[in-house]
Amino acid sequence: MNASNQKSIPRAAFTLAELLVVIAIITLLAALLLPTLSRSKATAQRIKCVGNLHQLGLATQMYWEENAGNCFRYSSGFTNGGQLFWFGWLGPGAEGERPFDAQMGALWPYLAGRGVELCPSLNYALGQFKLKARGAAYGYGYNLHLSAMPNQTPVPVAKITRPTDTALLADAAQVNTFQPPASRSNPMLEEFYYVSTNRSEATAHFRHAQRASAVFGDGHVAMEKMEAGSLDQNLPGQFVGRLRVEILPVP
Question: How far is CA 5 from CA 1, 2, 80, 95, 163, in A?
Answer without folding.
Answer: 7, 5, 92, 81, 90
